[in-house]
């Protein structure tokens, strides 16, 4: 474990990034009315294309992408600050989130020049929204067992299969799908490729899945003889496993993996300050504060590796595993403390926020890779398997 922990070299946000924070805060104060705590808790699952386009007009979608493709060409530290401030405010960022965080950087790194010039300016303008096509029925987080298949045909590919838990597929124009282009599921990592799927094509069916909270973020997507052009392939055929792991490092490393429950924690603190026993839960608050401070430092250390051009797959997996546990604990602990005193007069907004997060918290350790998958990666990084 010491070898892995040593990879988290202490890093700090740059002065330029901290100066950028002031700009983001000023924008939010002027252009965004803070929602209720329960709505804030939906921040990076809140879909608002109009708000995403407001950000895009300032160059804040695709912020790390080169100017030649419509991006702001800012560094990973500036993107970290932008994400942190948007999440803290509870802004609805889900529309552009995946394209900004991983689809755009993936296309930049592995895509053809034609793909970069077509997709990246549309991402930066918040005109093209992407979803992730990884998980499938009967495979879940075991991505090496995916069964969706694309076969070579005249002029391109014929795609058949299903994807599951696909966030915002009903609102997106494109999906980057991990599919098998050769061999069988028993070949595991071999024979996998990534394709860009236009979700408006004939043969694509998107079916929303309603969750316990009544939201419809997740979807099941069916591909029935979907014909894709030859240039739908990203990178080289058979390189999908290498590419998807690089993509997942982007997905797992950001502050969204530690701030999903922050609206509940902040509102609980506000309620405690208004009450007669403000210091009653000082030890619990201290526990949360130390965890959050440590996780934030670890997340910034991963960002420093991304800024240096590295692919911190194992480090990002560790932050995601510990971070989602922290997020889940906030909802569990606060709900337990509220239940300890059922006769107390509890703020309605606090109850609503706690109820929502209790319902969705189990997904925190599923999205972006289950604990079992992440811990397997960490074990390999430690040389234990």
In short:
By secondary structure, this protein is α+β, with helices and mostly antiparallel strands. The protein has helices at residues 2-6, 15-31, 37-40, 49-57, 76-89, 94-110, 113-124, 240-253, 262-274, 282-307, 313-340, 348-364, 371-381; strands at residues 130-133, 149-153, 156-163, 174-180, 192-198, 204-209, 218-229, 233-234.
Chart the SSEs and their pairings.
Blueprint: H1 2-6, H2 15-31, H3 37-40, H4 49-57, H5 76-89, H6 94-110, H7 113-124, E1 130-133, E2 149-153, E3 156-163, E4 174-180, E5 192-198, E6 204-209, E7 218-229, E8 233-234, H8 240-253, H9 262-274, H10 282-307, H11 313-340, H12 348-364, H13 371-381
Parallel strand pairs: 1-4
Antiparallel strand pairs: 2-3, 3-7, 4-5, 5-8, 6-7
Question: Could you please describe the fold and organization of this structure?
Answer:
It contains 13 helices and eight strands. The chain is of the alpha+beta class and 385 residues long. It has three domains: 7-129, Butyryl-Coa Dehydrogenase, subunit A, domain 1, CATH 1.10.540; 132-238, Butyryl-CoA Dehydrogenase, subunit A, domain 2 (Beta Barrel); 242-381, Up-down Bundle (Butyryl-CoA Dehydrogenase, subunit A, domain 3). Strands 1-4-5-8 form a four-stranded mixed sheet, covered by helices on one side. A four-stranded antiparallel sheet has the order 2-3-7-6, with no helix packed on it. A hairpin with an 8-residue loop joins β6 and β7 (218-229).
